[in-house]
Write a structure and sequence with these properties.
The complex is a heterodimer of chains A (283) and B (218). Chain A is 29% helix and 22% strand. Chain A has seven helices and ten strands. The radius of gyration of chain A is 20 Å and the shape is globular. In chain B, the strands form two sheets. Chain B has a four-stranded parallel β-sheet with strand order 4-3-5-6. Chain B has a two-stranded antiparallel sheet with strand order 1-2. The radius of gyration of chain B is 23 Å and the shape is globular. Classes of the chains: A alpha/beta (283), B alpha/beta (218). At the A-B interface, helix 1 of A face helix 7 and helix 8 of B.
Chain lengths: 283, 218
């Protein structure tokens, strides 16, 4: 007899499988990432099984039959929508930030590897993204995702000598997994990003999204510095997963630097942070 | 299901091609192939000709990107329609569905997709630049025949993308771009909420929330 599991979930992927069925990627609280086939989910008669849209970034309670092997799909049995993200549907920058968080989660969290704390942080982040804390919450979540997946960059001090970082320029190597101060030599670190030490210090101090959500909103920080800090974190995500972040081009929109998601769509104002030319203005 | 080894090469190829069609499995592909074998030569070749004709003649309208055999399409060429109101849809199928209501008398613009950052679909992959150009410069291109409709100043853009997260994102992006390139134009979005005949007791939270947020004065 099939085993039915019940869990909280956030939908991070939706693909059409056939005329009426979809394949969904859900980040669940207790079962990590699960890929399920939602048979006939687009059909009107299935609306009783799926209460509310099973749409990207929505969260709800899922009942599913798990897959037998990692390469197979589980089967969605029921979906009870809890939050359809009304705020994000009216806020382009917030929606773009949510897309980035979804992609980073999908890159860092493995199938059926539970990360209950990170699930809670993603819920908290999605609740913050349509508000004034968007930029800070996005940064905090990507940092939390790296920490949760065990790939957190070394932010406390120089990788080589261990000394605390000064406010002046420091070098970040995603391959080496952290920073090196101005006097130390970085060997075999791959692409190096130069950035102001105060940005690194601000990144190290950044609290979890759930902590940000529990406090009254703070004044928005320096958008350019936040975008540079995000460039560092995404470089780390790309280095550990060996894949490019597709939503990187949305950074301009997320951090309020112009219209951002332009017609050519591929630039993003912080690309220089990933090419090793940038020196931040401060955090 | 593996093809029967006794089938001829051409029959196997035909089944393989039918099997690639949406909603057609290997069993149905086999049934269709045998149906064609049984039917007359004229009937079978008429199908082949129809497929060839569709591929040879159907193209996108140069104005709205709807599917058409004549450029501009019948909707864009219709001088009776209101060319100052453009309804923006994701796919030609959405256009057909809206046309079937017989309510809308404006014209359309088909985006040929929606912005999907997680699938690498960016605004540049859609017909958004052409829409903005159409609004800013007017519809008509130089050298087109006198039968094309006159250029109309656009008054309203109706955003009729799907109410999915990606459809909403596409709509938000268009709102942002339209506010930048043509702030004088009214931009509206299709209403959402409870369908007629629905019962509140059995409606899901998302639909009820939309209905409450989008309530109208009576």
């Amino acid at each position: 007899m099939a085993t039915y599991l019940n869990d909280d979930a956030i939908c991070l992927r939706v693909h059409d499988f056939s005329e009426t069925s979809q394949v969904v990627g859900l980040f669940t609280r207790a079962h990590g990432m699960v890929s399920l086939i939602a048979k006939g989910v687009k059909r009107e008669s299935k609306k009783g099984v799926v209460s509310g849209p099973l749409d990207l970034l929505t969260s709800g309670e899922v009942v599913f039959v798990p897959s037998r092997g990692a390469a197979e799909l589980g089967t969605l049995a029921a979906w009870e929508l809890a939050d359809h993200r009304a705020g994000l549907r009216k806020n382009l920058a917030g929606l773009n930030a949510a897309m980035l968080c979804a992609e980073v989660t999908g890159m860092l969290v493995q199938a059926q590897d539970p990360h209950a704390e990170l699930y809670g942080e993603l819920e908290a982040t999605l609740g913050l993204l349509a508000g004034p804390q968007r930029a800070r919450a996005t940064l905090a979540y990507v940092k939390a995702a790296l920490v949760g997946a065990g790939y957190a960059p070394q932010l406390g001090g120089c990788l080589t000598c261990g000394r605390g970082l000064s406010d002046g320029p420091v070098r970040f190597s995603a391959r080496a997994g952290g920073f090196v101060c101005g006097t130390c030599v970085l060997e075999g670190g791959g692409t190096v990003i130069q950035v102001a030490g105060r940005i690194v210090a601000a990144l190290a101090r950044l609290e979890l999204p759930s902590v940000l959500a529990a406090r009254p909103p703070e004044k928005a920080g320096d958008a350019a510095a936040q975008a540079l800090a995000m460039g560092l974190l995404l470089a780390q995500v790309e280095a550990v997963t060996d894949r490019g972040v597709k939503t990187r081009y949305l950074l301009g929109s997320i951090f309020g630097q112009g219209r951002g998601q332009g017609m050519k769509g591929q630039g993003g104002e912080v690309t220089e942070a990933s090419t090793g030319k940038a020196e931040g203005k401060g955090g | 299901m593996a093809a029967n080894p006794h089938y001829t090469d051409s029959l196997r190829k035909l089944m393989e091609l039918f099997g690639k069609l949406p909603g057609v499995g290997s069993r149905s592909a086999e049934r269709i192939a045998f149906h064609l074998l049984k039917s007359s030569r004229e009937e079978a070749l008429a199908l082949a000709d129809a497929i060839r004709a569709v591929k040879d003649h159907v193209k996108h309208c140069s104005i709205c990107f709807n599917l058409t055999e004549h450029d501009p399409c019948s909707i864009c060429a219709d001088a009776e329609r209101d060319h100052s109101v453009i309804c923006v849809v994701e796919q030609p199928k959405d256009l057909l569905q809206l046309e079937s209501t017989n309510i809308f008398r404006g014209v359309y613009h088909v985006l040929l997709g929606r912005i999907a950052p997680l699938e690498n679909v960016t605004p540049a992959d859609l017909t958004i630049p052409q829409l903005l150009e159409r609004i800013v410069r007017g519809v008509r291109k130089e050298g087109e025949g006198a039968s094309t409709p006159p250029v109309a100043a656009v008054r309203e853009i109706i955003l009729a993308t799907n109410p999915t997260m990606e459809g909403d994102g596409t709509s938000l992006f268009l709102q942002q771009e339209l506010a930048y390139v043509a702030p004088q134009i009214a931009v509206t979005r299709l209403a959402r909420g409870l369908p007629a005949g629905a019962q509140i007791e059995y409606s899901n939270k998302a639909i009820l929330a939309d209905a409450l947020n989008g309530r109208t004065k009576v």
